[in-house]
Design goal:
39% helix; Aminopeptidase; alpha/beta; globular; nine-stranded mixed beta sheet
Length: 327
């Protein structure tokens, strides 16, 4: 009897996976590949980008590359005056830094006026003079996240994968200087800020463990419970999203999602930790685990589908709201 029960359960599970695999949403997830990840990172973190400092010609080239991908995927420009770029004056007084923004319009007549944001920073720390290899390529920090935003944009733009809410895909600059680009967007949003229901931020997901990603901020809103549910529904990914294991490092306050959180937008921050190559010239494309990153991105994609199609917006935990959201 036990054998029959196990056989039936196995058949049901296999059938479920087969049915799941045949849906447009899951077919779209399959466009997120290790080959795609490797290609984008090889471009973004190439020596020709000269470390993508803010400001720099390499940063401008990166911003244009992201915009070209967004255009290829059929997104709408989400920057200033119908362009792909939102530009801001640098606090240092050194000139035109860009955020690159593309929008996929939602499929629901009412919910399309609400937005889920996928964000990552495309800048890095530039050149460290006086070394034989002086270019800080920033493959993991944050070539991996910038690549993730592009891979997610491609997946969501596939036939049958467009969710009810609209999606903003955004790569910001100036993160390494003090979260400049995301701060500018949060103060000068190109869509009404109150209509942004969540920010899913991606910063450094290409290194360390093969089967684990840290989702910082899980405890602060019901996005954490949603992620747990989505994670459990996709064992085929071989990826577990865990809580913040470095609370003493205060990572919640150290990447672009924080500028959204301060304004009342629920967030999750996907991160796989620092390593010996953090902010070193040795943070190179060859060290990225592209297969692992593709599985993390598929998990984030399924989470985005859940959030963008849900009847209700994500909700803050009351105590967290009081501590984090600023008037």
């Amino acid at each position: 009897m036990r054998s029959l029960v196990l056989l039936a359960a196995s058949a049901a599970f296999t059938g479920s996976l087969y049915a799941q695999a045949s849906t447009p949403v899951t077919k779209a997830a399959e466009t997120i590949t290790k080959e795609g990840v490797a290609h984008h990172i090889s471009v973004i973190a190439d020596d020709s980008m000269m470390g993508r400092d803010t400001p720099s010609p390499g940063l401008e080239k990166t911003a244009q590359y992201v915009a070209d991908q967004f255009k290829k995927f059929g997104l709408k420009p989400g920057g200033d005056k119908g362009t792909w770029f939102q530009r801001y004056d640098l606090p240092s007084g050194d000139g035109t830094a860009p955020n690159t923004i593309g929008i996929l319009e939602g499929s629901d007549p009412k919910l399309k006026d609400e937005y889920v944001v996928f964000s990552a920073h495309m800048d890095h720390i530039g050149i460290s003079s006086g070394q034989a290899d002086s270019i800080n390529n920033g493959a993991d920090d944050d070539g991996s996240g910038t690549t993730g935003v592009m891979e997610l944009a491609e997946a969501f733009s596939q036939p049958g994968a467009r969710p009810k809410r609209s999606i903003i895909f955004m790569t910001v600059s100036g993160e390494e200087k003090g979260l400049w680009g995301s701060a500018h967007f949060s103060e000068n949003p190109t869509v009404p800020l109150k209509q942004i229901v969540a920010d899913l931020n991606i910063d450094m997901i290409g290194r360390n463990w093969k089967d684990t990603v840290v989702a910082i901020g899980k405890e602060h809103s019901d996005l954490g419970a949603t992620l747990n549910r989505v994670n459990a529904a996709h064992p085929e990914l071989g990826m577990t999203a865990i809580d913040d294991i470095w609370p003493e490092e205060q990572f919640y306050f150290r990447s672009d999602h924080y500028n959204f959180a301060k304004k009342g937008v629920p967030i999750l921050f996907f991160f796989t930790g620092v390593h010996e190559d953090y902010h070193q010239v040795s943070d190179s494309p060859d060290k990225i685990n592209t297969e692992k990153e593709s599985r993390i991105l598929r998990l984030i994609y399924y989470l985005g589908q859940e959030v963008a199609n849900a009847t209700d917006r994500p909700k803050w935990n009351e105590e967290s709201y009081k501590k984090i959201v600023q008037p």
